[in-house]
Design goal:
With about 220 residues, this protein is of the alpha/beta class. It contains 11 helices and 5 strands; from the N terminus they run E-H-E-H-E-H-E-H-E-H-H-H-H-H-H-H. It starts with a strand and ends with a helix.
Length: about 220
C-alpha cells in the first residue's frame, strides 16, 4: 500500500495555490515522483500544471518546502512525522486511501528464471526468512535497521520499524493490483499486461513445497 503524504507549505491550502508552483521529488521515476502524480490528480491537477524539481532525500525536500524553495512534496515515514511536527500542511494524505502498490521487488532477466533458477530460489528463501525474522524479533530488526540506515534517534527508529511492518508482505508475495497501478504510470492510456512483468512461479513452488508453512511454524506467524 502507498504510505506517502503530499505536504505543502502552510500558506498553500488549495489546488489553485499550488498551480504553477514548484513541486519537489527525490528523482524522476521514483516513488516520490509517482505519488506526486497521484496526489496532483486528487487535487484536479496534472504534472503539466506544476514544475517538478529533483531535490534528493525526504528531509531535503521538506526543508525546501519550509524555506519556500518549493511549494509541495510527497514523503513517507519517518519524514512524514517530522513534516507534521514542523507544521507543513498534509494537503493530500494517500495513506488512508490504501492504494495497492509495489515499492520494491527482485528484478532479473527472464532468461535467469530458467538458467539460474536454483540461485534465485535460494536467494528468495533467504530473503523471505529474513522478513519473518525481522517481523518476529523487533529488537534485532531495529538493531540492523539502525546500523544500516544510521538512524540513532530511538523515536525515528520506532516510526521506521512500524512503517516497515505496515507495508512488508510476510511471504514477499507481490500484489497484482499494486503491479497494475505501477504499470499504469508508465504509458498513459495503454493497458500493460502484469504477467509480462511479474513472475511468481518460484514463490508458488516454495508454497507448494511447504517452505512457507515451515516458516510460519518456526516463527509463529
Amino acid at each position: 500500500m502507498i504510505r506517502f503524504t503530499f505536504f505543502s507549505a502552510p500558506g498553500v491550502k488549495t489546488a489553485a495555490d499550488l498551480k504553477g508552483g514548484v513541486v519537489g521529488v527525490s528523482t524522476f521515476g521514483s516513488e516520490s515522483d509517482a505519488t506526486v502524480t497521484l496526489a496532483l490528480k486528487k487535487l484536479g491537477l496534472t504534472r503539466d500544471e506544476v514544475t517538478l524539481k529533483e531535490l534528493g532525500g525526504g528531509m531535503r525536500r521538506i526543508e525546501a518546502v519550509q524555506s519556500g524553495e518549493i511549494k509541495a512534496t510527497s514523503v513517507n515515514e519517518p519524514v512524514t512525522s517530522l513534516a507534521r511536527e514542523r507544521g507543513l500542511n498534509p494537503i493530500v494524505d494517500l495513506v488512508p486511501e490504501q492504494i495497492p502498490w509495489l515499492f520494491t521487488g527482485i528484478v532479473v532477466k527472464q532468461d535467469s528464471l530458467a538458467h539460474r533458477r536454483d540461485v534465485l530460489t535460494r536467494f528468495l528463501k533467504a530473503a523471505i526468512e529474513g522478513n519473518y525474522l525481522a517481523l518476529s524479533d523487533e529488537k534485532r530488526a531495529k538493531e540492523v535497521l539502525g546500523r544500516e540506515t544510521r538512524i540513532t534517534d530511538a523515536r525515528i527508529l520506532d516510526i521506521s520499524y512500524n512503517d516497515f511492518k505496515q507495508q512488508s508482505p510476510l511471504d514477499a508475495q507481490p500484489s497484482r493490483a499494486g503491479a497494475e497501478n505501477v504499470l499504469a504510470q508508465f504509458r498513459a492510456g495503454e493497458r500493460m499486461n502484469v504477467d509480462d512483468h511479474v513472475d511468481t512461479s518460484i514463490l508458488d513452488e516454495l508454497k507448494q513445497a511447504g517452505f512457507l508453512a515451515a516458516l510460519q511454524r518456526k516463527y509463529g506467524k
